[in-house]
């Protein structure tokens, strides 16, 4: 078992990365602000006025209306995606189950696109989030029912189902795009690639209102996920109500993924890379895994977003592109390693 | 004292076929009852029905005087523990963590000291102290079986159901596991164990029940149940039952002709 000291060290390390990333991300951009003004504006935002508060109203507005919500969105989406990945892996009993890979994210994106194209978006952010949840939920249930046989995950079926769901949802997105007007079309392109650009406080509020309670619920179930790794029947022999846990967890995955996708688009592999890294550093016990994945996922996306918008000056790269650039090879490495260790998957 | 299990007229179907048929069986506290029989006879299904995993088609199972269906999953987990044939863990939990999971039914009931004591006793009885920090997923088949048995013991239940606990084990560990079963019975617990080794069953079980095509064809003390005629009729192979052995335990061996004559 991993010592408490190491646990603290790793989580503290993630937290430092997150805090530093937050400050750097808020300071850097087309308008360089500097950490002092960032601090001043933050304090002003919570009602404390200091001499650090930026003098320039444009600087302050840039921070408060553009950069801060964008950084907050990165933090929340990173945390929810990493937790969604860890929960999904727990109920599938397999480290390759990830919302992006198996199609939950694209299902949610399809739901969100339908919301835009058919005007449900006029209900505000909640309408988009609700349909994204439904899309993600449908995809999760489909993949789960197909890939779970006799209490086991058939890995090949899992990944093949993921391919099918991704293909279908991709075509659905294209169809909706084809039928939609120009404005909606732009928004749909944005989902396919994923971006934190244009995050608003109201959207941040929606993601927080759904994502944080869902993360808390996942943490409360951590002990049960540990038992579930003994296999469904053994877990049931130890008093676990497996059926309830499964249904609840599928809802959690759809909520966590759907609400992120609704406002930031499809960002793949966060739910794969972060929990895997945490398991390597701190072991598989879910309470620590989920807590550390939350902080780690948040840190990862803050830095990824920072790179995405500063790597090429004057242009904002889609963040989903960046995470897939890292996550794709990582997925490949996981597959290779499992193949050499366990002879692959039959 | 109430019986651990009272099984009456039990029939279970799986996939439309009757796997267990009209079984009547009592299991007493303080005894080791061995379920033996050919492959596919229905031993594991019967054990599954006693566990609560396999639905009952007809008949009834009472556990500790109460109908099995009336037990809540939490209470059931405090009453009976189950060791299954295959024990896989999907993430690399350490052996210690796996054994600790056996305490789950008692969370909120037992004190931390009680948990620690139960875990330490389970580790000692199964001889796995040297494996505690290893990931369960990296253990050999026999080590996995012993670590899983430790998890079952840590559960500290009145009734212990073991499905082929010796299958993956070497000679010494087979004997040790059955001695653990005996010591559980000596503490007043009821132990039901599915075995293939008839001699091992004869040496360590108080009673043996032979299952054949879903029915219990014989139940009683090893000497009553294990006769050469019965073994031959159930397993379809001629056998010798040796009673005059150095340690006094009955031994069952198949009749082995010379291999160059090629007939059994």
Descriptors for this entry?
heterodimer; A: 346 residues; mainly alpha; ABC transporter involved in vitamin B12 uptake, BtuC; two-stranded antiparallel sheet; 2 strands; B: 264 residues; alpha/beta; Rossmann fold; four-stranded antiparallel sheet; 12 strands; globular
Can you offer a commentary on this structure?
The complex is a heterodimer of chains A (346) and B (264). Chain A is mainly α and 346 residues long. Chain A has one domain: ABC transporter involved in vitamin B12 uptake, BtuC (Orthogonal Bundle), CATH 1.10.3470. Helix content of chain A is 76%, strand content 1%. Chain A has 14 helices and 2 strands. Chain A has a two-stranded antiparallel ribbon. The two termini of chain A are 31 Å apart. The model of chain A has no long low-confidence stretch (mean pLDDT 88). Chain B has 264 residues and is an alpha/beta fold. Chain B has a domain at 1-64 and 190-264: Rossmann fold. In chain B, 33% of the residues lie in helices and 26% in strands. Chain B has helices spanning 43-51, 73-79, 95-101, 112-126, 141-154, 171-186, 198-204, 222-225, 228-235, and strands at 5-14, 17-27, 32-36, 58-63, 66-67, 80-83, 159-163, 190-194, 207-212, 215-220, 239-242, 251-254. In chain B, the strands form 3 sheets. In chain B, strands 6-7-8-3-9-10 form a 6-stranded mixed sheet, with helices on both faces. A 4-stranded antiparallel sheet of chain B has the order 2-1-4-5, with helices on one face. Chain B is globular. Chain B starts with a strand and ends in a 10-residue tail after the last strand. The A-B interface holds A 1, 93-95, 223, 226-227, 229-231, 233-234, 236-241, 279, 283-285 and B 51, 53, 73-74, 76-78, 81-82, 84, 87-94, 96-98, 101-102, 104-105, 107, 133, 151, 155.
């Amino acid at each position: 078992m991993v010592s408490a000291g190491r646990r603290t060290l790793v989580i503290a390390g993630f937290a430092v990365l997150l805090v530093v990333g937050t400050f750097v991300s808020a300071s850097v951009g087309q308008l360089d602000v500097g950490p002092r003004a960032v601090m001043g504006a933050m304090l002003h935002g919570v009602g404390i006025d200091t001499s650090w508060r930026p003098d320039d109203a444009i600087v302050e507005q840039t921070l408060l209306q553009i950069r801060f919500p964008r950084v907050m969105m990165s933090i929340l989406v990173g945390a929810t995606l990493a937790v969604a990945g860890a929960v999904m892996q727990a109920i599938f009993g397999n480290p390759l189950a990830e919302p992006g890979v198996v199609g939950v994210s694209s299902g949610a994106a399809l739901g969100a696109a339908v919301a835009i194209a058919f005007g449900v978006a006029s209900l505000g952010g909640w309408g988009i989030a609700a349909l994204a949840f439904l899309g993600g939920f449908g995809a999760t249930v489909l993949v789960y029912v197909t890939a779970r046989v006799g209490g086991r995950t058939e890995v090949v079926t899992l990944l093949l189902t993921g391919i099918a769901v991704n293909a279908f949802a991709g075509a659905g997105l294209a169809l909706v795009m084809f039928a939609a007007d120009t404005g909606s079309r732009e928004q749909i392109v944005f989902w396919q690639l994923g971006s934190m650009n244009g995050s608003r406080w109201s959207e941040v509020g929606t993601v927080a209102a759904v994502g944080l309670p869902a993360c808390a619920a996942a943490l409360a179930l951590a002990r049960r996920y540990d038992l579930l790794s003994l296999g469904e029947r053994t877990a049931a022999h130890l008093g676990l109500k497996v059926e309830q846990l499964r249904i609840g967890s599928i809802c959690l995955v759809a909520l966590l993924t759907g609400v992120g996708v609704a406002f930031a688009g499809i960002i793949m592999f966060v739910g794969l890379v972060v929990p895997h890294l945490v398991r390597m550093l701190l072991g598989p016990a879910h309470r620590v895994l989920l807590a550390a994945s939350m902080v780690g996922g948040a840190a990862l996306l803050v830095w990824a977003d920072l790179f995405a918008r500063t790597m090429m000056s004057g242009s904002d790269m889609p963040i989903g592109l960046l995470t897939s650039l890292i996550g794709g090879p990582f997925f490949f490495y996981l597959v290779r390693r499992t193949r050499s260790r366990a002879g692959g998957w039959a | 004292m109430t019986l651990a299990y009272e099984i009456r007229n039990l029939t279970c179907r799986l996939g439309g076929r009757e796997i267990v048929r009209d079984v009547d069986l009592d299991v007493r506290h303080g005894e080791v009852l061995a379920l033996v029989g050919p492959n596919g006879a229905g031993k594991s299904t019967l054990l599954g029905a006693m566990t609560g995993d396999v639905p009952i088609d007809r008949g009834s199972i009472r556990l500790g005087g109460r109908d099995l269906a009336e037990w809540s999953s939490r209470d059931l987990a405090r009453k009976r523990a189950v060791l299954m044939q295959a024990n896989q863990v999907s993430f690399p939990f350490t052996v210690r963590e796996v054994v600790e999971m056996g305490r789950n039914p008692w969370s909120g009931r037992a004190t931390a000291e009680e948990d620690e004591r139960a875990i330490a006793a389970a580790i000692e009885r199964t001889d796995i102290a040297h494996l505690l920090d290893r990931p369960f997923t990296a253990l050999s088949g026999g080590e996995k079986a012993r670590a899983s048995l430790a998890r079952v013991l840590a559960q500290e239940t009145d009734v212990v159901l073991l499905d082929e606990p010796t299958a993956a084990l070497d000679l010494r560990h087979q004997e040790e596991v059955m001695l653990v079963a005996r010591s559980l019975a000596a503490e007043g617990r009821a132990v039901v164990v599915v075995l293939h080794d008839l001699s091992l069953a004869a040496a360590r079980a108080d009673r043996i029940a032979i299952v054949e095509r879903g029915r219990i064809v014989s139940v009683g003390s090893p000497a009553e149940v294990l006769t050469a005629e019965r073994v031959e009729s159930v397993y379809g192979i001629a056998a010798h039952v040796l009673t005059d052995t150095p340690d006094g335990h009955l031994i069952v061996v198949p009749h082995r002709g010379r291999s160059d004559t090629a007939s059994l």
